[in-house]
Amino acid sequence: MARAQEGPLLELSGAVYRYGAISALKGVDLHVNRGEAVCVIGPNGAGKTTLARLAGGLYRPAGGTIRVNGEPMPRQPHEAVARGIGSVLEGRHLFVEQTVQTNLELGCYHGNVPKAVVEERLEKVMDLFPVLRKRASQETSTMSGGEQQMVAVGRALMAEPEILILDEPSMGLSPKITGEVFDALEALRKGGLSILLIEQNAPLAFELADRGYLLRQGEVVVEGNIDELTEDEVVRSAYLGA
Amino acid sequence: MRIIDLLVSGLTLGAIYALVALGFHLVYRMTGVLDFAQGDKVIIGGLLGLTLVRQGLDTILLVALLVLIAGLLLGIAYDALVILPTQNNGHIATIAATVGIMLVFANGGHLIWGPDGKPFPPVHRGVLEIGEMRIGYQDLLIWVVVIGVAIGLALLLGRSRVGRGMVAAATDPLAAQAVGINVSRMRAIAFALAFGLAALAGVLVAPITLAGGTLGTALTLKGFTGAVLGGLASTRGVIVGAVLLGVIESELAAVIPNSYVDPIVLIALIIVLLVMPNGLFGLRRQRLA
Ligand SMILES: Nc1ncnc2c1ncn2[C@@H]1O[C@H](COP(=O)(O)OP(=O)(O)OP(=O)(O)O)[C@@H](O)[C@H]1O
Ligand SMILES: [Mg+2]
Protein backbone atom coordinates (compact mmCIF):
# COMPACT_ATOMS: atom_id res chain seq x y z
CA MET A 1 0.00 0.00 0.00
CA ALA A 2 3.07 2.23 0.29
CA ARG A 3 2.66 5.20 -1.99
CA ALA A 4 5.75 6.98 -3.22
CA GLN A 5 4.73 10.40 -1.95
CA GLU A 6 6.60 13.51 -1.00
CA GLY A 7 5.95 14.89 2.46
CA PRO A 8 4.86 13.27 5.69
CA LEU A 9 2.72 10.16 5.97
CA LEU A 10 0.45 11.81 8.53
CA GLU A 11 0.16 15.53 9.11
CA LEU A 12 -1.99 17.64 11.41
CA SER A 13 -1.97 21.38 10.77
CA GLY A 14 -3.62 23.73 13.24
CA ALA A 15 -5.89 20.94 14.46
CA VAL A 16 -8.65 22.20 16.76
CA TYR A 17 -11.11 20.10 18.74
CA ARG A 18 -13.79 21.05 21.25
CA TYR A 19 -16.09 19.10 23.55
CA GLY A 20 -18.91 21.62 23.82
CA ALA A 21 -17.32 24.61 25.54
CA ILE A 22 -14.11 22.76 26.43
CA SER A 23 -11.25 23.35 24.03
CA ALA A 24 -9.32 20.08 24.04
CA LEU A 25 -6.92 20.94 21.18
CA LYS A 26 -6.11 24.53 20.31
CA GLY A 27 -4.32 24.34 16.98
CA VAL A 28 -1.88 21.45 17.00
CA ASP A 29 0.79 20.98 14.32
CA LEU A 30 2.25 17.50 14.22
CA HIS A 31 3.56 15.14 11.59
CA VAL A 32 4.90 11.63 11.23
CA ASN A 33 7.22 10.80 8.35
CA ARG A 34 7.30 7.42 6.69
CA GLY A 35 9.18 4.88 8.80
CA GLU A 36 9.39 7.24 11.75
CA ALA A 37 8.37 6.63 15.37
CA VAL A 38 7.02 9.77 16.99
CA CYS A 39 5.85 10.14 20.56
CA VAL A 40 3.50 12.54 22.29
CA ILE A 41 3.83 12.98 26.02
CA GLY A 42 1.81 15.17 28.33
CA PRO A 43 -0.07 15.28 31.62
CA ASN A 44 -3.60 14.01 32.24
CA GLY A 45 -6.17 16.04 30.37
CA ALA A 46 -3.59 17.52 27.99
CA GLY A 47 -5.60 16.34 25.00
CA LYS A 48 -3.52 13.29 24.08
CA THR A 49 -6.45 10.95 23.52
CA THR A 50 -8.27 13.62 21.55
CA LEU A 51 -5.17 14.02 19.41
CA ALA A 52 -4.91 10.25 18.90
CA ARG A 53 -8.51 10.10 17.72
CA LEU A 54 -8.12 13.00 15.32
CA ALA A 55 -4.93 11.47 13.95
CA GLY A 56 -6.73 8.14 13.65
CA GLY A 57 -9.57 9.74 11.68
CA LEU A 58 -12.11 8.76 14.35
CA TYR A 59 -12.97 12.35 15.29
CA ARG A 60 -13.25 15.24 12.87
CA PRO A 61 -11.39 18.43 13.75
CA ALA A 62 -13.39 21.62 14.32
CA GLY A 63 -10.57 23.52 12.65
CA GLY A 64 -7.32 22.88 10.81
CA THR A 65 -6.53 20.01 8.48
CA ILE A 66 -5.35 16.42 8.74
CA ARG A 67 -3.66 14.77 5.79
CA VAL A 68 -2.72 11.17 5.15
CA ASN A 69 -0.23 10.54 2.36
CA GLY A 70 -0.85 14.11 1.24
CA GLU A 71 -4.61 13.66 0.92
CA PRO A 72 -7.30 14.90 3.30
CA MET A 73 -8.37 12.46 6.00
CA PRO A 74 -11.65 10.78 4.95
CA ARG A 75 -14.78 12.30 6.48
CA GLN A 76 -16.18 9.01 7.70
CA PRO A 77 -14.37 7.49 10.69
CA HIS A 78 -14.63 3.95 9.35
CA GLU A 79 -12.77 4.92 6.17
CA ALA A 80 -9.51 5.80 7.91
CA VAL A 81 -8.36 2.19 8.12
CA ALA A 82 -8.55 1.85 4.36
CA ARG A 83 -6.05 4.69 4.15
CA GLY A 84 -3.46 2.75 6.11
CA ILE A 85 -4.20 4.00 9.61
CA GLY A 86 -4.34 1.58 12.52
CA SER A 87 -5.62 2.80 15.89
CA VAL A 88 -4.88 1.12 19.22
CA LEU A 89 -7.32 2.94 21.48
CA GLU A 90 -6.81 4.06 25.06
CA GLY A 91 -8.26 1.45 27.38
CA ARG A 92 -7.92 -1.18 24.63
CA HIS A 93 -11.57 -1.21 23.52
CA LEU A 94 -11.71 -4.90 22.65
CA PHE A 95 -14.92 -6.56 21.51
CA VAL A 96 -15.33 -7.94 24.99
CA GLU A 97 -17.63 -10.88 24.57
CA GLN A 98 -15.70 -12.23 21.61
CA THR A 99 -12.71 -14.50 21.48
CA VAL A 100 -9.15 -13.43 20.77
CA GLN A 101 -9.40 -14.90 17.30
CA THR A 102 -12.66 -13.08 16.47
CA ASN A 103 -11.20 -9.82 17.72
CA LEU A 104 -8.18 -10.27 15.52
CA GLU A 105 -10.27 -11.33 12.52
CA LEU A 106 -12.46 -8.26 12.92
CA GLY A 107 -9.24 -6.31 12.49
CA CYS A 108 -9.38 -7.07 8.77
CA TYR A 109 -13.06 -6.28 8.39
CA HIS A 110 -12.61 -3.38 6.01
CA GLY A 111 -11.05 -4.97 2.97
CA ASN A 112 -13.18 -8.11 2.92
CA VAL A 113 -9.85 -9.93 3.08
CA PRO A 114 -9.79 -13.54 1.75
CA LYS A 115 -9.66 -16.23 4.40
CA ALA A 116 -6.20 -17.47 3.46
CA VAL A 117 -4.77 -13.98 3.88
CA VAL A 118 -6.54 -13.59 7.22
CA GLU A 119 -4.85 -16.83 8.33
CA GLU A 120 -1.46 -15.53 7.25
CA ARG A 121 -1.93 -12.31 9.16
CA LEU A 122 -3.14 -14.20 12.22
CA GLU A 123 0.08 -16.21 12.10
CA LYS A 124 2.16 -13.04 11.96
CA VAL A 125 0.38 -11.58 14.99
CA MET A 126 0.77 -14.84 16.91
CA ASP A 127 4.48 -14.84 16.06
CA LEU A 128 4.75 -11.33 17.42
CA PHE A 129 2.77 -12.17 20.60
CA PRO A 130 3.26 -15.90 21.21
CA VAL A 131 1.05 -15.89 24.35
CA LEU A 132 -1.97 -15.25 22.14
CA ARG A 133 -1.49 -18.51 20.26
CA LYS A 134 -2.76 -20.74 23.04
CA ARG A 135 -5.47 -18.28 23.90
CA ALA A 136 -7.02 -17.91 20.47
CA SER A 137 -10.40 -19.24 21.59
CA GLN A 138 -10.51 -17.45 24.94
CA GLU A 139 -12.94 -14.60 25.53
CA THR A 140 -10.94 -11.40 25.81
CA SER A 141 -12.80 -10.22 28.92
CA THR A 142 -11.21 -13.07 30.88
CA MET A 143 -7.65 -12.13 29.93
CA SER A 144 -5.02 -10.14 31.79
CA GLY A 145 -4.49 -6.49 30.94
CA GLY A 146 -1.24 -7.24 29.17
CA GLU A 147 -2.76 -9.95 27.02
CA GLN A 148 -5.65 -7.65 26.18
CA GLN A 149 -3.22 -4.94 25.11
CA MET A 150 -1.51 -7.45 22.84
CA VAL A 151 -4.86 -8.31 21.27
CA ALA A 152 -5.54 -4.60 20.78
CA VAL A 153 -2.21 -4.10 19.01
CA GLY A 154 -2.68 -7.32 17.04
CA ARG A 155 -6.16 -6.32 15.93
CA ALA A 156 -4.86 -3.04 14.52
CA LEU A 157 -2.03 -4.89 12.75
CA MET A 158 -4.46 -7.26 11.05
CA ALA A 159 -5.37 -4.49 8.60
CA GLU A 160 -1.66 -4.14 7.73
CA PRO A 161 -1.55 -0.40 8.41
CA GLU A 162 1.18 1.95 7.27
CA ILE A 163 1.02 3.78 10.58
CA LEU A 164 0.05 2.55 14.00
CA ILE A 165 -1.36 5.08 16.46
CA LEU A 166 -1.14 3.88 20.06
CA ASP A 167 -2.82 5.68 22.95
CA GLU A 168 -1.07 4.86 26.23
CA PRO A 169 -0.36 1.19 25.54
CA SER A 170 1.54 0.86 28.84
CA MET A 171 -1.42 1.99 30.95
CA GLY A 172 -2.06 -0.40 33.83
CA LEU A 173 0.59 -2.91 32.73
CA SER A 174 3.44 -4.27 34.83
CA PRO A 175 6.96 -3.22 33.75
CA LYS A 176 7.62 -6.73 32.50
CA ILE A 177 4.57 -6.91 30.26
CA THR A 178 5.10 -3.31 29.14
CA GLY A 179 8.59 -4.40 28.10
CA GLU A 180 7.16 -7.23 26.02
CA VAL A 181 4.70 -4.93 24.27
CA PHE A 182 7.40 -2.36 23.56
CA ASP A 183 9.79 -5.02 22.26
CA ALA A 184 7.10 -5.94 19.75
CA LEU A 185 6.65 -2.29 18.79
CA GLU A 186 10.42 -1.97 18.31
CA ALA A 187 10.37 -5.01 16.02
CA LEU A 188 7.48 -3.55 14.00
CA ARG A 189 9.32 -0.28 13.69
CA LYS A 190 12.42 -2.05 12.42
CA GLY A 191 10.13 -3.71 9.90
CA GLY A 192 9.27 -0.28 8.51
CA LEU A 193 6.00 0.52 10.27
CA SER A 194 5.46 4.17 11.17
CA ILE A 195 4.35 4.76 14.74
CA LEU A 196 2.60 7.56 16.60
CA LEU A 197 2.92 6.72 20.26
CA ILE A 198 0.95 8.58 22.93
CA GLU A 199 2.51 7.88 26.33
CA GLN A 200 2.62 9.32 29.84
CA ASN A 201 5.71 7.26 30.58
CA ALA A 202 8.28 9.53 28.93
CA PRO A 203 11.45 7.45 29.44
CA LEU A 204 9.69 4.49 27.85
CA ALA A 205 8.42 6.56 24.93
CA PHE A 206 11.88 8.07 24.37
CA GLU A 207 13.41 4.63 24.01
CA LEU A 208 11.20 3.84 21.03
CA ALA A 209 10.75 7.22 19.36
CA ASP A 210 12.90 9.27 16.99
CA ARG A 211 11.09 12.49 17.75
CA GLY A 212 8.53 13.74 20.18
CA TYR A 213 6.06 16.41 21.22
CA LEU A 214 5.09 17.63 24.67
CA LEU A 215 1.39 18.46 24.75
CA ARG A 216 -0.06 20.59 27.50
CA GLN A 217 -3.56 22.04 27.76
CA GLY A 218 -4.25 21.31 24.12
CA GLU A 219 -1.08 22.88 22.77
CA VAL A 220 2.32 21.61 21.72
CA VAL A 221 4.76 23.32 24.10
CA VAL A 222 7.98 21.50 23.20
CA GLU A 223 8.95 19.48 20.16
CA GLY A 224 12.15 18.02 18.80
CA ASN A 225 14.20 14.89 18.46
CA ILE A 226 14.73 12.74 21.52
CA ASP A 227 18.09 14.30 22.41
CA GLU A 228 16.55 17.74 22.33
CA LEU A 229 13.64 16.63 24.47
CA THR A 230 15.91 14.97 27.03
CA GLU A 231 17.83 18.24 27.33
CA ASP A 232 14.70 20.39 27.64
CA GLU A 233 14.20 21.89 31.10
CA VAL A 234 10.41 21.55 31.09
CA VAL A 235 10.55 17.94 29.98
CA ARG A 236 13.32 17.07 32.41
CA SER A 237 11.63 18.53 35.47
CA ALA A 238 8.18 17.18 34.73
CA TYR A 239 8.83 13.81 33.09
CA LEU A 240 12.36 12.60 33.64
CA GLY A 241 12.53 13.23 37.37
CA ALA A 242 15.59 15.42 36.93
CA MET B 1 -61.75 -24.35 24.86
CA ARG B 2 -59.45 -27.26 25.12
CA ILE B 3 -55.84 -27.04 26.23
CA ILE B 4 -54.65 -28.04 22.78
CA ASP B 5 -56.64 -25.33 20.98
CA LEU B 6 -55.35 -22.82 23.46
CA LEU B 7 -51.83 -24.01 22.75
CA VAL B 8 -52.35 -23.28 19.07
CA SER B 9 -53.65 -19.78 19.67
CA GLY B 10 -51.03 -19.24 22.36
CA LEU B 11 -48.21 -20.16 20.00
CA THR B 12 -49.60 -17.78 17.41
CA LEU B 13 -49.91 -14.97 19.93
CA GLY B 14 -46.40 -15.73 21.15
CA ALA B 15 -45.05 -15.70 17.61
CA ILE B 16 -46.49 -12.23 17.07
CA TYR B 17 -45.02 -11.08 20.39
CA ALA B 18 -41.72 -12.55 19.23
CA LEU B 19 -41.63 -10.35 16.13
CA VAL B 20 -42.20 -7.31 18.34
CA ALA B 21 -39.67 -8.54 20.92
CA LEU B 22 -37.00 -9.05 18.26
CA GLY B 23 -37.37 -5.39 17.38
CA PHE B 24 -36.82 -4.44 21.03
CA HIS B 25 -33.80 -6.72 21.07
CA LEU B 26 -32.16 -5.40 17.90
CA VAL B 27 -32.66 -1.78 18.88
CA TYR B 28 -31.54 -2.37 22.45
CA ARG B 29 -28.37 -4.17 21.44
CA MET B 30 -27.48 -1.61 18.82
CA THR B 31 -28.23 1.59 20.74
CA GLY B 32 -28.82 0.63 24.38
CA VAL B 33 -32.30 2.18 24.30
CA LEU B 34 -35.82 0.79 24.47
CA ASP B 35 -38.02 1.68 21.54
CA PHE B 36 -41.54 2.24 22.83
CA ALA B 37 -42.95 2.70 19.34
CA GLN B 38 -42.33 -0.98 18.64
CA GLY B 39 -45.98 -2.04 19.04
CA ASP B 40 -47.30 0.85 17.00
CA LYS B 41 -45.01 -0.11 14.12
CA VAL B 42 -47.09 -3.31 14.01
CA ILE B 43 -50.27 -1.27 13.71
CA ILE B 44 -48.74 0.87 10.95
CA GLY B 45 -47.82 -2.34 9.10
CA GLY B 46 -51.39 -3.62 9.36
CA LEU B 47 -52.79 -0.32 8.11
CA LEU B 48 -50.36 -0.15 5.20
CA GLY B 49 -51.48 -3.67 4.33
CA LEU B 50 -55.10 -2.56 4.56
CA THR B 51 -54.43 0.26 2.12
CA LEU B 52 -52.91 -2.17 -0.36
CA VAL B 53 -55.88 -4.52 0.01
CA ARG B 54 -58.29 -1.65 -0.56
CA GLN B 55 -56.35 -0.80 -3.73
CA GLY B 56 -57.40 -4.21 -4.94
CA LEU B 57 -54.33 -6.26 -4.15
CA ASP B 58 -55.81 -9.55 -2.97
CA THR B 59 -52.76 -11.82 -2.81
CA ILE B 60 -52.10 -11.35 0.89
CA LEU B 61 -48.64 -12.95 0.72
CA LEU B 62 -47.68 -10.25 -1.77
CA VAL B 63 -49.20 -7.63 0.52
CA ALA B 64 -47.11 -9.04 3.37
CA LEU B 65 -43.96 -8.88 1.26
CA LEU B 66 -44.63 -5.29 0.17
CA VAL B 67 -45.36 -4.23 3.73
CA LEU B 68 -42.15 -5.91 4.89
CA ILE B 69 -40.19 -3.93 2.32
CA ALA B 70 -42.02 -0.71 3.23
CA GLY B 71 -41.23 -1.45 6.88
CA LEU B 72 -37.53 -1.92 6.17
CA LEU B 73 -37.44 1.46 4.39
CA LEU B 74 -39.48 3.13 7.13
CA GLY B 75 -36.98 1.75 9.63
CA ILE B 76 -34.12 3.50 7.85
CA ALA B 77 -36.09 6.76 7.85
CA TYR B 78 -37.00 6.19 11.51
CA ASP B 79 -33.34 5.84 12.40
CA ALA B 80 -32.39 8.98 10.49
CA LEU B 81 -35.28 11.16 11.72
CA VAL B 82 -36.01 9.93 15.25
CA ILE B 83 -32.90 8.22 16.61
CA LEU B 84 -29.91 9.92 15.01
CA PRO B 85 -30.89 13.50 15.97
CA THR B 86 -31.39 12.53 19.61
CA GLN B 87 -28.65 10.03 20.28
CA ASN B 88 -25.96 12.53 21.21
CA ASN B 89 -28.16 13.81 24.03
CA GLY B 90 -28.18 10.59 26.00
CA HIS B 91 -30.45 7.58 26.27
CA ILE B 92 -33.28 9.40 27.99
CA ALA B 93 -33.60 11.81 25.05
CA THR B 94 -33.77 8.93 22.59
CA ILE B 95 -36.29 6.98 24.66
CA ALA B 96 -38.41 10.13 25.01
CA ALA B 97 -38.27 10.50 21.23
CA THR B 98 -39.56 6.94 20.77
CA VAL B 99 -42.41 7.66 23.16
CA GLY B 100 -43.20 10.78 21.15
CA ILE B 101 -43.17 8.92 17.86
CA MET B 102 -45.35 6.22 19.41
CA LEU B 103 -48.02 8.87 19.93
CA VAL B 104 -47.47 10.20 16.41
CA PHE B 105 -47.95 6.71 14.97
CA ALA B 106 -51.01 5.94 17.08
CA ASN B 107 -52.77 9.25 16.48
CA GLY B 108 -51.57 9.54 12.91
CA GLY B 109 -53.02 6.10 12.23
CA HIS B 110 -56.37 7.21 13.70
CA LEU B 111 -56.38 10.39 11.62
CA ILE B 112 -55.65 8.65 8.34
CA TRP B 113 -57.47 5.36 8.76
CA GLY B 114 -59.97 6.15 11.53
CA PRO B 115 -59.95 5.05 15.16
CA ASP B 116 -61.63 1.64 14.80
CA GLY B 117 -60.12 -1.66 13.83
CA LYS B 118 -60.96 -2.83 10.30
CA PRO B 119 -61.46 -6.40 9.12
CA PHE B 120 -58.48 -7.77 7.26
CA PRO B 121 -58.27 -10.91 5.11
CA PRO B 122 -55.98 -13.78 6.15
CA VAL B 123 -53.53 -15.33 3.72
CA HIS B 124 -55.56 -18.52 3.84
CA ARG B 125 -58.87 -19.21 5.59
CA GLY B 126 -58.56 -22.98 5.72
CA VAL B 127 -58.05 -25.15 8.77
CA LEU B 128 -55.73 -28.10 9.00
CA GLU B 129 -57.22 -31.01 10.96
CA ILE B 130 -54.80 -33.49 12.44
CA GLY B 131 -56.89 -35.98 14.37
CA GLU B 132 -58.51 -33.94 17.12
CA MET B 133 -56.31 -30.94 16.54
CA ARG B 134 -57.41 -28.00 14.41
CA ILE B 135 -54.78 -25.53 13.23
CA GLY B 136 -55.65 -22.58 11.01
CA TYR B 137 -53.41 -22.09 8.00
CA GLN B 138 -52.95 -18.52 9.14
CA ASP B 139 -51.52 -19.81 12.44
CA LEU B 140 -49.21 -22.17 10.57
CA LEU B 141 -48.05 -19.35 8.35
CA ILE B 142 -47.27 -17.14 11.35
CA TRP B 143 -45.26 -19.94 12.97
CA VAL B 144 -43.34 -20.60 9.79
CA VAL B 145 -42.57 -16.90 9.38
CA VAL B 146 -41.27 -16.61 12.94
CA ILE B 147 -39.14 -19.74 12.61
CA GLY B 148 -37.82 -18.43 9.30
CA VAL B 149 -37.06 -15.04 10.82
CA ALA B 150 -35.30 -16.67 13.78
CA ILE B 151 -33.11 -18.81 11.53
CA GLY B 152 -32.47 -15.91 9.17
CA LEU B 153 -31.42 -13.60 12.00
CA ALA B 154 -29.21 -16.27 13.55
CA LEU B 155 -27.45 -16.74 10.22
CA LEU B 156 -27.22 -13.02 9.54
CA LEU B 157 -25.83 -12.13 12.95
CA GLY B 158 -23.75 -15.23 13.54
CA ARG B 159 -22.33 -16.02 10.13
CA SER B 160 -22.43 -13.09 7.74
CA ARG B 161 -19.92 -10.28 7.47
CA VAL B 162 -22.64 -7.67 8.03
CA GLY B 163 -23.77 -9.57 11.09
CA ARG B 164 -20.29 -9.62 12.57
CA GLY B 165 -20.10 -5.91 11.86
CA MET B 166 -23.42 -5.34 13.61
CA VAL B 167 -22.34 -7.30 16.67
CA ALA B 168 -19.03 -5.42 16.81
CA ALA B 169 -20.72 -2.04 16.30
CA ALA B 170 -23.16 -2.87 19.09
CA THR B 171 -20.37 -3.97 21.44
CA ASP B 172 -17.98 -1.07 20.90
CA PRO B 173 -18.82 1.54 18.27
CA LEU B 174 -15.49 3.35 18.48
CA ALA B 175 -13.43 0.18 18.09
CA ALA B 176 -15.77 -0.90 15.30
CA GLN B 177 -15.07 2.31 13.40
CA ALA B 178 -11.36 1.85 13.96
CA VAL B 179 -11.48 -1.49 12.13
CA GLY B 180 -13.52 -0.06 9.28
CA ILE B 181 -17.10 -0.89 10.25
CA ASN B 182 -19.66 1.70 9.16
CA VAL B 183 -21.45 2.00 12.48
CA SER B 184 -24.24 4.27 11.20
CA ARG B 185 -25.04 1.77 8.49
CA MET B 186 -25.14 -1.09 11.00
CA ARG B 187 -27.52 0.90 13.15
CA ALA B 188 -29.71 1.69 10.15
CA ILE B 189 -29.86 -2.03 9.35
CA ALA B 190 -30.92 -2.84 12.92
CA PHE B 191 -33.71 -0.24 12.80
CA ALA B 192 -34.76 -1.39 9.34
CA LEU B 193 -35.10 -4.96 10.61
CA ALA B 194 -36.95 -3.84 13.74
CA PHE B 195 -39.51 -1.87 11.73
CA GLY B 196 -39.73 -4.42 8.94
CA LEU B 197 -40.43 -7.33 11.28
CA ALA B 198 -43.02 -5.31 13.19
CA ALA B 199 -44.76 -4.24 9.98
CA LEU B 200 -44.81 -7.84 8.77
CA ALA B 201 -46.29 -8.88 12.09
CA GLY B 202 -48.98 -6.26 11.51
CA VAL B 203 -50.19 -7.91 8.31
CA LEU B 204 -50.06 -11.38 9.83
CA VAL B 205 -51.94 -10.50 13.00
CA ALA B 206 -54.53 -8.15 11.46
CA PRO B 207 -56.96 -10.96 10.49
CA ILE B 208 -57.03 -11.97 14.17
CA THR B 209 -57.00 -8.55 15.88
CA LEU B 210 -58.36 -6.30 13.08
CA ALA B 211 -56.14 -3.76 11.33
CA GLY B 212 -55.60 -0.46 13.11
CA GLY B 213 -57.34 0.27 16.39
CA THR B 214 -55.64 0.77 19.71
CA LEU B 215 -53.66 -2.40 20.25
CA GLY B 216 -50.25 -0.79 19.68
CA THR B 217 -49.52 -0.03 23.31
CA ALA B 218 -50.59 -3.52 24.38
CA LEU B 219 -48.29 -5.05 21.77
CA THR B 220 -45.41 -2.86 22.95
CA LEU B 221 -46.02 -4.01 26.50
CA LYS B 222 -46.30 -7.69 25.57
CA GLY B 223 -43.34 -7.68 23.22
CA PHE B 224 -41.28 -5.96 25.86
CA THR B 225 -42.40 -8.37 28.59
CA GLY B 226 -41.54 -11.36 26.40
CA ALA B 227 -38.16 -9.88 25.56
CA VAL B 228 -37.28 -9.16 29.18
CA LEU B 229 -38.56 -12.57 30.28
CA GLY B 230 -36.22 -14.36 27.89
CA GLY B 231 -33.36 -11.89 28.20
CA LEU B 232 -33.37 -8.65 26.23
CA ALA B 233 -29.78 -9.11 25.11
CA SER B 234 -30.19 -12.58 23.62
CA THR B 235 -31.77 -13.30 20.23
CA ARG B 236 -32.76 -16.79 21.28
CA GLY B 237 -33.94 -15.45 24.64
CA VAL B 238 -36.39 -12.90 23.29
CA ILE B 239 -37.98 -15.42 20.92
CA VAL B 240 -38.40 -18.09 23.58
CA GLY B 241 -39.57 -15.53 26.15
CA ALA B 242 -42.17 -14.08 23.82
CA VAL B 243 -43.54 -17.45 22.70
CA LEU B 244 -43.66 -18.61 26.31
CA LEU B 245 -45.57 -15.49 27.26
CA GLY B 246 -48.12 -16.05 24.50
CA VAL B 247 -48.71 -19.67 25.51
CA ILE B 248 -48.92 -18.94 29.24
CA GLU B 249 -51.36 -16.11 28.65
CA SER B 250 -53.64 -18.25 26.50
CA GLU B 251 -53.63 -21.20 28.87
CA LEU B 252 -54.20 -19.00 31.90
CA ALA B 253 -57.17 -17.40 30.22
CA ALA B 254 -58.89 -20.78 30.27
CA VAL B 255 -58.69 -21.16 34.02
CA ILE B 256 -58.93 -17.65 35.42
CA PRO B 257 -60.95 -14.57 34.47
CA ASN B 258 -59.40 -12.61 31.62
CA SER B 259 -58.80 -9.49 33.64
CA TYR B 260 -56.50 -11.38 36.03
CA VAL B 261 -54.24 -12.72 33.32
CA ASP B 262 -52.08 -9.65 32.76
CA PRO B 263 -51.51 -8.87 36.45
CA ILE B 264 -50.56 -12.48 37.16
CA VAL B 265 -48.22 -12.66 34.17
CA LEU B 266 -46.54 -9.41 35.14
CA ILE B 267 -46.13 -10.50 38.76
CA ALA B 268 -44.60 -13.74 37.50
CA LEU B 269 -42.24 -11.68 35.34
CA ILE B 270 -41.14 -9.64 38.35
CA ILE B 271 -40.42 -12.84 40.27
CA VAL B 272 -38.43 -14.26 37.36
CA LEU B 273 -36.43 -11.05 37.12
CA LEU B 274 -35.73 -11.06 40.87
CA VAL B 275 -34.22 -14.52 40.55
CA MET B 276 -32.68 -14.05 37.10
CA PRO B 277 -32.16 -10.33 36.51
CA ASN B 278 -31.03 -10.88 32.93
CA GLY B 279 -34.01 -13.03 31.99
CA LEU B 280 -34.23 -16.77 31.43
CA PHE B 281 -31.44 -16.72 28.86
CA GLY B 282 -29.36 -14.10 30.55
CA LEU B 283 -27.42 -16.31 32.96
CA ARG B 284 -24.34 -16.26 30.82
CA ARG B 285 -23.17 -13.02 29.39
CA GLN B 286 -25.06 -12.63 26.18
CA ARG B 287 -24.09 -12.01 22.63
CA LEU B 288 -26.27 -10.63 19.91
CA ALA B 289 -26.41 -13.98 18.17
N1 LIG C 1 -16.31 13.33 26.01
C1 LIG C 1 -15.82 14.45 26.57
N2 LIG C 1 -16.66 15.42 26.96
C2 LIG C 1 -16.19 16.57 27.51
N3 LIG C 1 -14.91 16.81 27.72
C3 LIG C 1 -14.01 15.88 27.37
C4 LIG C 1 -14.43 14.66 26.78
N4 LIG C 1 -13.33 13.91 26.54
C5 LIG C 1 -12.29 14.65 26.95
N5 LIG C 1 -12.69 15.83 27.45
C6 LIG C 1 -11.83 16.90 27.97
O1 LIG C 1 -10.88 17.25 26.99
C7 LIG C 1 -9.61 17.42 27.54
C8 LIG C 1 -8.60 16.49 26.89
O2 LIG C 1 -8.98 15.14 27.15
P1 LIG C 1 -8.13 13.91 26.65
O3 LIG C 1 -8.86 12.69 27.02
O4 LIG C 1 -7.80 14.11 25.23
O5 LIG C 1 -6.83 14.07 27.51
P2 LIG C 1 -5.62 13.04 27.74
O6 LIG C 1 -4.38 13.82 27.56
O7 LIG C 1 -5.81 11.84 26.90
O8 LIG C 1 -5.78 12.65 29.26
P3 LIG C 1 -5.36 11.28 30.00
O9 LIG C 1 -3.89 11.34 30.19
O10 LIG C 1 -6.08 11.36 31.30
O11 LIG C 1 -5.79 10.15 29.14
C9 LIG C 1 -9.77 17.19 29.03
O12 LIG C 1 -9.91 18.43 29.65
C10 LIG C 1 -11.04 16.41 29.14
O13 LIG C 1 -11.68 16.68 30.36
MG1 LIG D 1 -5.92 9.86 27.24
From TrEMBL, chain A:
What PROSITE patterns does the record point to?
Answer: ABC_TRANSPORTER_1 (PS00211), ABC_TRANSPORTER_2 (PS50893)
GO molecular function terms here?
ATP binding; ATP hydrolysis activity; branched-chain amino acid transmembrane transporter activity
- Tell me which residues make up the ABC transporter domain: 10-242
Does the keyword field hold NADP?
Answer: no
Name the domain of life this protein comes from: Bacteria
Question: Which CDD domains does this entry report, sorted A to Z?
Answer: ABC_TM1139_LivF_branched (cd03224)
Q: Which InterPro entries match?
A: AAA+_ATPase, ABC_transporter-like_ATP-bd, ABC_transporter-like_CS, BCAA_Transport_ATP-bd_LivF, P-loop_NTPase
Q: Which GO terms describe its biological process?
A: L-amino acid transport
Coiled-coil positions are none
Keyword list, A-Z: Amino-acid transport, ATP-binding, Nucleotide-binding, Transport
Give the Pfam families listed for this entry. ABC_tran
Q: Which family does it belong to?
A: Belongs to the ABC transporter superfamily.
PANTHER family linked to this entry: HIGH-AFFINITY BRANCHED-CHAIN AMINO ACID TRANSPORT ATP-BINDING PROTEIN LIVF
Protein name (record): ABC transporter ATP-binding protein
Q: Which species does this protein come from?
A: Actinomadura livida
UniProtKB/TrEMBL annotation, chain B:
The transmembrane residues are 7-28, 60-84, 91-113, 140-158, 189-212, 224-248, 260-283
Q: What is this protein called?
A: Branched-chain amino acid ABC transporter permease
Report the InterPro entries cross-referenced here: ABC_transp_permease (IPR001851), BCAA_transport_permease (IPR052157)
Main location as per UniProt: membrane
Gene Ontology terms, cellular component aspect?
plasma membrane
Q: Which domain of life is it from?
A: Bacteria
* UniProt record similarity statement: Belongs to the binding-protein-dependent transport system permease family. LivHM subfamily.
Protein localization: Cell membrane
Organism of origin: Actinomadura livida
Ribonucleoprotein as UniProt keyword: no
Cite the entry's keywords alphabetically. Answer: Amino-acid transport, Cell membrane, Membrane, Transmembrane, Transmembrane helix, Transport
How this chain sits in the membrane, per its record, is: Multi-pass membrane protein
Instruction: Note whether Cell membrane occurs among the keywords.
Output: yes
Question: Which Pfam families does its entry note?
Answer: BPD_transp_2
